[in-house]
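Exercise 7.
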Amino acid sequence: MLRIFKTCFVAALLCFVGVANASKIDLETIAEWWNIPYPESFDTSQLKTQGFIHVKGNQFVDASGKHFVFRGMNIASPDKLLKQGQWKKSLFAELKDWGVNTIRLPVHPIGWRSSGKYNYIELIDEAVVWANELGIYLILDWHSIGYLPNGLFQHPMYKTNVQETMEFWQFVAARYKGVPTIAVYEIFNEPTDMGGKAGTADWLEWKAFNEQVIDVIYAHDKQVIPLVAGFNWAYDLTSVIEHPIEREGIAYVSHPYPQKAKPKPRTKDAVYASWTEKWGHVSAKYPIIATELGWVEEGGFGAHIPVIDDGSYGPWIIEYMEARNISWTAWCFDPEWSPTMIHDWDFKPTEQGKFFKKVLQAY
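Solution. The predicted structure, written as tokens, is:
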């Protein structure tokens, strides 16, 4: 695995702190700060050929110009999986067997800080190598929930700030410039004012912030696709048509969990109309990735609002998205994070896991 720092510098550090503490090095607080080298770009020579995915109109296209749809799964955060002994290539290989062409990597701000960015980036490096070997694309997601401009969040694990978020994307964009395997940068997972509990979300303010992040990303790498989320926990994109992100090559995200749409009576046509009103209409003009979707039956493991459903949601959402060329990654290929795709690390599928596995393997 490629290391970020020059061999001689790392060797000197190991002598200074001792091998046992090597993974605990805080390179930003060592005494001889003037000797800290600049972070290096990922070594693409270790990757096999993999075409870049681009935006063309309201679609994604591959290197040959052919229409491309991201279809795949979320996994848990790499640092969580590492601590539980599940961060390994075999996890990616299992997902390949399920039929995915895409894996979404959620990076929680608390995990980024507690692991240390230099340690965490080595996990992402491994994900790039594994995914590339298997012909899979990655979506890298800054996994926070709340309204960033107000600095208010749903839980301490999501706490971040504008500066940290900007620095994360600056660091990542510089590191993975020219790496086709990481196709998408999801700037912020779920922006929401939590019904006023995090203040009042303002689309023009949010739009301006995302444009600033995109400018930083594009200053390093114009071959990646920035992904911008709507409000109401990344569900509502109604402001996009009137006030779109004024940058080329971007896409939008929605998390259309089953209880987000609330028509009465709850018929398929009524749900489709609700989806179209809140987010689906954007797909006529811009590409969309539903980076989270899924369900669990009432009383099932991890059942909570807004993911509870009787199972009708699965066929409905797939039919709806496929008719509109909407890409998607289902949540979540982990036995602990609901709605789960698997019961255990033997990869026994849950009810929704069986459904999505069948859908993915059909492609």
